[in-house]
Design brief:
Blueprint lengths: L1 H5 L3 E6 L7 H6 L4 H7 L1 E6 L1 H4 L6 H17 L8 E4 L5 H10 L4 H5 L2 H9 L6 H15 L5 E3 L2 H20 L8 E3 L34 H9 L16 H14 L3 H7 L5 H28 L1 H30 L5
Parallel strand pairs: 1-2, 2-3, 4-5
Helix pairs in contact: 5-14, 6-9, 6-15, 9-10, 11-14, 12-14
This protein binds tryptophan.
C-alpha cells in the first residue's frame, strides 16, 4: 500500500513521427517536458504504427522516426529519468490492441470525429487501421497503466474512449487497467497562426508562413515573423481587437518572461518592424540550443539507437507483463 502511495504517477505521451514540432507545440507542451520528468515517471513513445494509417513513404517514415526521437531528447528529456522508445519496438502494443479492439464497438469507433475528418480527407484510403486506430491508442496507454496522458483537444475523444474500454474490460473480467486521466499542462498561452491569428498554429496548415517549426533556421524564423499579420494601428498593445499583435506578444512574453505591460512599454512609440524583429530574436535564441543538441544527436546514430534500444527494453518489460495478464484473463492458452 505505501509503495502505491509513494509511486510517482506515470505519464504516457505519444507523438506521431510525421513532421516536426511547431512553436505552438513548444509553448504548449515541449518546454514543460524537462520539469515533468522530475515529478512523474514519463514514457515518451514515437507512434510509428499510428503513422501507417495514412500512406507514408517508407524511407521518410524511418528517417522521421529517428528525428522525432532526437527532438524529444534535444528538448530536455533525460533518458536516465524518462523512457523514450519507438512504438513498433514494443510488440505488446499491437498484441493488446487486438484484444481491445475485440472489446470495442463498431458504433463507438464510428463516432470518433478524427476518423470522420481523416476519412473525408483521405477518401482514397479509408483503411481498417484508420478506423481501429483508437484501440491501438488505448493499448498504448493501458499497457503501461498510465495515470495521465497529455492530450490536446483533438485526442480528448480518444482518451475518453480509452477509459470506456478500460472500464468495460475491468467490469467484464476483473480490475486490470488504470483509468487514465487527461493531463492538462499548467502553462497558458495558446499560440495562434501567424497568418490567421484566429486559428491555432498548426503544422498541417497549407500556408507555411502561418507556423514556425522548431527546426526552422534563423532566417526563416525572421522572415515568417516579419510576414506575420498584424493591423494598421501601429501600436504594440494587446487586445481582442488585435489578435495578430496579441499573439506575437504572447510568444514574446512566454519566451522572455516579460509581461504584457512591460512589452507595451518596451516598444512604445516604435513600429511593428522593431517589435517583430525582437519576437523573432526571442524565438531564435530559444531554439538555438535545442537545434544544436538535435543536430548533435542525429549525427550520432549509435548514441541515439542505444537510447532507443534501452527504452524499448524497459518499455517491453512493463508491457509484456500486462499482455500476459490480459491474455490469461481472456482465456489465451499459455504453455
Ligand atoms: N494519436 C496521437 C496523435 O495523433 C498519438 C498517440 C498515439 C498518442 N498513441 C498515443 C497520444 C497514446 C497519447 C497517448 O497525436
Amino acid at each position: 500500500m505505501s509503495e502505491q502511495i509513494q509511486r510517482k504517477k506515470r505519464i504516457l505521451s505519444g507523438i506521431q513521427p510525421t513532421g516536426t514540432f511547431t512553436l505552438g507545440n513548444y509553448v504548449g507542451a515541449v518546454r514543460n517536458w524537462g520539469a515533468l520528468q522530475e515529478e512523474y515517471e514519463c514514457l515518451y513513445m514515437i507512434a510509428n504504427l499510428h503513422a501507417l494509417t495514412v500512406r507514408q513513404e517508407p524511407a521518410a517514415l524511418r528517417r522521421q522516426t529517428r528525428e522525432a526521437a532526437a527532438m524529444v531528447l534535444a528538448s530536455g528529456i533525460d533518458p536516465q529519468k524518462s523512457t523514450v522508445f519507438i512504438q513498433s519496438h514494443v510488440p505488446a502494443h499491437a498484441e493488446l490492441s487486438w484484444v481491445l479492439s475485440c472489446n470495442t464497438q463498431f458504433g463507438e469507433l464510428s463516432r470518433m470525429t478524427q476518423f470522420k475528418d481523416k476519412s473525408a480527407k483521405h477518401s482514397d484510403n479509408v483503411n481498417a487501421g484508420l478506423f481501429t486506430y483508437p484501440a491501438l491508442m488505448a493499448a498504448d496507454i493501458l499497457v503501461y497503466n498510465a495515470d495521465l496522458v497529455p492530450v490536446g483537444v483533438d485526442q480528448k475523444q480518444h482518451l475518453e474512449l480509452t477509459r470506456n474500454i478500460a472500464q468495460r474490460f475491468n467490469n467484464l473480467y476483473s480490475p486490470t487497467f488504470t483509468l487514465p486521466e487527461p493531463y492538462i499542462a499548467k502553462t497558458g498561452a495558446k499560440i495562434m497562426s501567424l497568418q490567421e491569428p484566429e486559428k491555432k498554429m498548426s503544422k498541417s496548415d497549407t500556408n507555411v508562413n502561418s507556423f514556425i517549426l522548431m527546426t526552422d533556421d534563423p532566417d526563416t524564423i525572421l522572415r515568417k515573423c516579419k510576414r506575420a499579420v498584424t493591423d494598421s494601428e501601429g501600436t504594440v498593445r494587446a487586445g481582442d481587437d488585435k489578435p495578430g499583435v496579441t499573439n506575437l506578444m504572447s510568444i514574446y512574453s512566454v519566451l522572455t518572461g516579460k509581461d504584457f505591460a512591460a512589452i507595451e512599454a518596451e516598444f512604445a512609440g516604435q513600429g511593428y518592424g522593431v517589435f517583430k524583429e525582437a519576437v523573432a530574436g526571442s524565438i531564435i535564441d530559444t531554439f538555438r540550443p535545442i537545434q544544436q543538441e538535435y543536430t548533435r544527436i542525429l549525427a550520432d546514430k549509435d548514441y541515439l539507437d542505444g537510447i532507443l534500444s534501452e527504452g524499448a527494453a524497459k518499455a517491453s518489460h512493463m508491457a509484456n507483463r500486462m499482455v500476459n495478464k490480459v491474455y490469461k484473463k481472456v482465456g489465451m492458452l499459455q504453455l
